[in-house]
Write a structure and sequence with these properties.
13 helices; Rossmann fold; 6-stranded parallel β-sheet; 2 domains; globular; alpha/beta
Length: 367
């Protein structure tokens, strides 16, 4: 089959859960013998890169602003599919780009149209009123226009099924096997094994990094706090975080990281914390679990679904509870932590295995 992906920023993924999802899915579909094409934005993937691990890349421009970047690029991608591509499957990702899925439905009727519902983006605090309305309309489109709609979490699947009365297929995000690395490249930040707490996230307000900073400042621990990620049209929020962290040399902002450095950061951390107010199904959390890291997460449905009673949980937006849980974990017996790590690693290997997920996707394409 020839399969086309629309909606992602591009691959290889340097940041972004949707981009990591598309990269892992697309490259595995190529291994299974399919022809795969991914549309990439010029401000994310170099237009000099024409293919990646057998995946064909088509670089298109867009209007690089917070509100118009995704939709302008998606419009051009749809036109390219309609007039230039012979596709068996066109697969949209996220509710924003899915606003234009009707273009493929009308003008490319012989292609099977699939879309993946990754998160309720309109809950993210960076969006204003019109953007929220547009994203909510995109949600309605993603749950009604495609031949098949996939949701990445059980809670999203239940929500969409009940609200729109359509069969929604639950197929979660996957995670690769961990590549463990010794401390080397991360020495530049003064990091040592088991001597830092880590969070990996875009620096946008609904990710709740401000709660983690406030809680960490109350710990009085020698372990450092490492914040991996950068803003996404959220410069004011990034400055706010750095203002909270100022005068504390143990709080380290690394910016976006990928590849060997990110593997090192996961491999040698003491604890992973996810303080988000809203998620789809967090790939960063799955990655942390695959590395055998103990995890502390906010008690939103999407986080609780993943840790499944094994990971540590605190009340969403509750700095006092987050502080209390952090102190408890820092004082916890090493044997208890090791048992917790083993259970989390087993859990993620069983429920979020990419080989199983790709088979489910292929079955859906053929159905």
């Amino acid at each position: 089959m020839k399969i086309v992906f629309i909606g992602q920023k591009g691959i290889p993924a340097t940041y972004g859960g949707v981009e990591k999802h598309v990269e892992d899915l697309a490259t595995r579909l190529v291994r299974d013998g399919h022809e795969v094409l991914v549309y990439a934005r010029k401000n994310y993937t170099s237009d000099k890169l024409k293919s990646y691990k057998g995946v064909e890349l088509i670089s298109l421009p867009g209007i690089a602003t917070k509100h118009l970047d995704a939709i302008s690029h998606t419009f051009l991608a749809c036109l390219d599919v309609i007039f230039r591509q012979k596709a068996d499957v066109v697969h949209f990702h996220s509710i924003g780009p899915s606003l234009l899925s009707w273009m493929i439905k009308i003008f490319k009727p012989n292609a099977r149209l699939v879309a993946t519902f990754h998160s309720q983006c309109y809950n993210h605090q960076k969006w204003g009123g019109f953007a929220k309305f547009s994203l909510q309309l995109g949600e309605r489109m993603i749950c009604s226009v495609p031949d098949a709609t996939v949701a990445v979490s059980k809670s999203l699947t239940d929500y969409a099924t009940k609200k729109y009365g359509k069969k929604i297929f639950y197929i979660p995000n996957g995670v690769e096997s961990a590549t463990l690395r010794d401390v080397d490249l991360i020495k530049k930040w003064g990091l040592e094994k088991n001597e830092y707490i880590i969070t990996v996230s875009r620096l946008v307000r609904h990710k709740g990094i401000q709660y983690l900073l406030e809680a960490y400042k109350q710990l009085g621990t020698d372990k450092k706090l490492v914040i991996v990620g950068d803003g996404a049209f959220t410069d004011d929020y990034v400055q706010e975080l750095k203002k909270i962290a100022e005068d504390n040399p143990n709080i380290i902002f690394t910016g976006n990281q990928s590849g060997e450095i990110l593997q090192e950061l996961y491999s040698n951390a003491f604890l992973f914390v996810q303080p988000s107010e809203s998620e789809g199904l967090s790939i960063a959390l799955l990655e942390a679990m695959s590395y055998g890291l103990p995890v502390l997460v906010s008690d939103i449905l999407e986080n609780v679904e993943i840790v499944n009673g094994v990971g540590f949980v605190f009340g969403n937006k509750n700095v006092a509870d987050l502080t209390l849980k952090l102190k408890a974990i820092l004082m916890m017996d090493d044997i208890v932590l090791q048992e917790n790590k083993a259970k989390l690693k087993e859990l993620v290997a069983k429920n979020y295995n990419w080989n199983d997920i790709v088979r489910e996707i292929e079955t859906l394409y053929k159905a």
